[in-house]
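[SOLVED] Need 3D model of a two-part complex

Original post:
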Amino acid sequence: MVRGGEINIGTCLLINGNPHIVVEREFVSPGKGSAFARVKAKNLKSGNVITQTIKTADFVEDAQVDLVDCQYQYSDGENFMFMNNENYEQFGVPISLHEERKPYLKEGETYTLVMWEGEPIDIKIPYKMVFTVVESENYVRGDTVSGATKPVVTETGLVVRVPLFIKQGEKILVNTETNDYVERVNE
Amino acid sequence: MDIRMMEIRSRLLTITREFFLSRGYLETDTPALAPSLIPESCLEVFATEYVHPIEGRTPLYLIPSPEIWMKKIIAETGRSVFQVCKSWRNAESRSRIHSPEFTMLEYYGLGLSSRDNIHLTEELFSALKTELSPSQALPPFRIMTMKEAWAEFARADLDALQSAEAMREACRQRDLLVSPATSWEDAFNIIFLSLVEPNLPQDRPLVLNEYPAGIECLAKDIPGTMYKERWELYVSGIEIANCFTEMANPSAVRAYFTSQSMKKKDALVPHNVDAEYADIFEHFPPCSGVAVGFDRLLMVLAGKKDIADVQYFPFAGMGNADSRRKSLQNLNFPQ
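Solution:
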């Protein structure tokens, strides 16, 4: 069980028998009322997003999940294919339910997968990740209209605004929550 | 807060004072520290103490609103009153619309009802309009009863949901989580916060009128109904103000205190209760009061999205070092 006040983004709840991951949460206190957590939670089987309001002092059932390190291998168009790093078992995660993870999946990279009753229900993305710049426009000296940044595309298709000195082929560290450029990575 | 916002804040405060003074309201300036408060289960307070060098320590509390003092002045003077002052509420999470220390504007009009105060508040908004005010924050207000809002957004007849079990069943039918122990009030709020409040129209300010009596408060009952003469004002989806036709029946006030004291037994910050407070309602004139979150009012009238954008210094609580630094940098005082 988890207390309403402790629910956060990423908390897995069991709602009407189905696992849901919290994607948004705000605390609300209606006039003359108690404090509640209003959450948007995604059904990890259907992808539907629902709203629930839970009193911060009350308890609700959380989904008992396991965290397993897995290597991302490739996409077959319908599934992201992963391999469990411990038992080398291969399995697919439906792309349709996790489309938004696509720009953060690098082949050969290890990710933590959230497993519920033996099934993968979410892919955790590291807070900061290194990407390679594969597309970058040459900046025109004197172009100050767009400020001191330009958009580049990474090998995974992620678009990031970077300082003008970043060139194609270079590696950059990116904050995956905000898609903000952090620094250039020299190898 | 930038210098432009400081000027707007200062100007709107002056206009607010002139608005009420010109209508014959007495401006009050009551204590921030109170030896006792009225029990309100919906809020937690800040407790401190007075340390006397010989006589020892006396507990004191930062007021969560100036209401207790202002109503004493109304009972004694029979005057319409207003006040702008700091108020404090503890144990609320900080967010873009919450600050544990905030500025409250309260105004009580003698002989007025909550309906009269809708019009007065519209006039106040017109007087406070700035060049930055979006049309969604300007009068005329849209008025909708709570019953109408439930019919439209929760597809429910609120009149038919008078028992706790009926309200819990309405939650279950909408796949909202409730337990068999969920109270009527909590089940009401679960539906209200999940389905009604997020869908309230935002094209102009919305007065949500006639709150159910099942949410205990010091507003007058509407005879023969399950509702009270109470409204809340929403602007751009943010709760800005709360208004009652004030309850003036001492036995009803005492019953409210007893019930709220029971609900408050697990309070994080217990406080002394003013046992004689209900006595002032033995001779209390008919009136209606509005409490406005002044910072939120500035937010919506200046088109700002974060309460910190309208405060001189954002709340200096724990873990706020970044925004404190930012606010100091933003002051941009000449060197």
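Edit: Residues 2 and 330 of chain B are 6 Å apart (CA to CA).
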